[in-house]
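Input.
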Amino acid sequence: MAKSRIIETGYGASNAGDSSVERSAVIEIVPIKKLRRSRRTARYHSKTQIKQIAESIASFGFINPIVADTFNRVVAGFGRLAAAEILHFRAVPVIRVRDLSETEIRAYMLADNKLGEKAGWDRALLIVELEELEVALPEIGLDLSITGFEQNEIDTLFADFDDGSALAAEAGAMAWRL
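Output.
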């Protein structure tokens, strides 16, 4: 049976009750066969989304590790794990959660998914990025769909800026970057 191996250490977030205490974070390479799915996963991924995640991992690498507890139960990264299985990975990077109670892990599982949904988009900057990537990605053999945006979303964004405001958006984006 393959053993996990530690590949990197760093520092994670602090305890909620004591902002001066840091927890260590260790990234391990863990065989997929050792990881278990939690029965309390309220979020699910469609087959289409898992395929998109797999395409992203195949294109960019496994940049965002899976989070698992000390019992190899996946806490975050269910879609990445499913994508790794599609790609026939034997092992994946995992950040091990060691210092959270079962209640804290359950709350983190929900927060990890829900808090990302609360972010918005700067549409002006987004259209600039998409326009530039639409030209640059084919040069490296990728399509704009690798970003996760559906074609109808991209078309709608482009249509919103077809009235010439894309230049103003780019000027605004450049001013923001300065």
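The CA atoms of residues 113 and 119 lie 11 Å apart.
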